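Continuing the batch. This is chain 6 of the set; chains 1 through 5 are on the previous pages. Same settings as before, nothing changed between runs. Recording input and output for traceability.
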Amino acid sequence: MSDKNYNDEKNSDFDAAQTGQVGNAKQRKSPISKNRQKKTGCLGGLMYFIFIVSVSVILACLGWMAASDVLALNKGSEAIEVTLPEEIFTQKEVDVKDSDGNVTGTDTINVADIGKVADILKDAGIIKYTVLFTMYSGISDAKEKMDPGTYTLNTEYDYRAIVKKMQFGSDSQVRTMVTFPEGFTMKEIFTRLEENKICKYDDLMECAATVQFNYKFLENVPLGDASRLEGFLYPDTYEFYQGMTPEAAIDTFLQIFHYKLTAEMWTLAEKKNLTMRDIVNIASMIEKEAANDDERATIASVIYNRLKANMALGIDATIQYALPEHKEVLTEADLAIDSPYNTRMYTGLPPTPIANPGFPSIMAALKPATTDYLYYALDTATGTHKFFKTAAEFNAFVATQDYSK
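Output for chain 6:
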C-alpha cells in the first residue's frame, strides 16, 4: 500500500471517526435536553399549582376567620359587661335637618375614639381583630353612633349589633335603681351616684356649676357654683344607666321636679312675692327640721313669722350645711362660725337651699299654717317639736331638755 493510499485511508478513518463522534454527541445531547425540559416543565407547573392552592387556602382561611369575627359565626354565647368611659369621647356639633333637608338647628353628638373602643372590645373578648373592627367602623361611621356607658354585650353579636347595642338607651345598657331620701344634700346625691357607677362625683359637680339647664325655676340662677342646683334634685327612686353623662343624670332629677310643679304652686309662690327658689329654700329647712308631716306647716309658719319680723331664723340645720361634715351635736365654735349659712348670725334666707326637699315640705312652704309662733324646740322625750310665742316660754322649756346626748 502506498503512502498516499495509506494516508488517504487514515484520513478517511479519522474523518469518519470525527463524524461519528459529532454524530454520537448530537445523538446523545438531543434526547437528554428534551427529557429535562419535560421534567422541568412538569415540576414547575406542579409547584405553581401547589403555590396557588396554598395561597387560596390561606386566603380562604383568613377570609373565614375575618367573616367569623365580623358576622359572629360559630362563636359561643357569653354575656360580658363592657364600659366605654366618657374620656374616650369628644363632642361634635352637627346640623339638625327637617324632612325636606332644611337646617333647623344644631345638636351635639358624641364621637368615639374607635381605636380605643376596639381595644376595649378585644380585651373583653367580644371581638378578635381590632383592625377589622376599625375598618368596619370607618365604613359604617360607627364612631358617631356610640355613647359612653356600661353595656352587657354577647359574644354572639356581630359588628353591626355591637355598635347598635352601645348606644344610650339601648336594651344592652346596664341599668341601676337608686333611691335618694328626702333631705339628701346635692353632695350626698352625687356621692351615691358615683357609688352606683352612674357618674363620677367631680364630673357631676362640674356639670352642676357650668351647664345651663333650661327650666323656669332656674331662671336668673347664675352659673358658676354647683350649689345653684341645690334643692332642685327631687328625691325619689330612679333608674339610671351606668356610665351615663352627668348632664343626663342631673336632668333626670330636674325633669321630675319640673313635672311636680303645678300652676297652683307657681301662683302661690307669686302671691308671696317669692321665687320658686325661695320656696325651695324654705322647704329645705322644713325638711331638715320637721320630725313628721304634721309639723311641717307649723315650722313653715315660724319661718315666715321670723322673716316678717326681720328676726334671725336661728335654724341650726343651716349651720350644719356650712360645715365640712355633719355633726350630731354642734359646738359653741360651730354655732359661732362666720358663714352666710349661719342663720343665728345673719337674717333672711340662707344663700341657697340646704337640702333637696320632698313634696310635703314644698307644699308646707307654699301653704304654711297661720300661727303666732316665733320659736320651736325639740322635745327629747317624744322626738317632736314644741312651739312657743315668746322667748321666755321657749327658754323655760329648753332648760328642761338635755340636747348634749
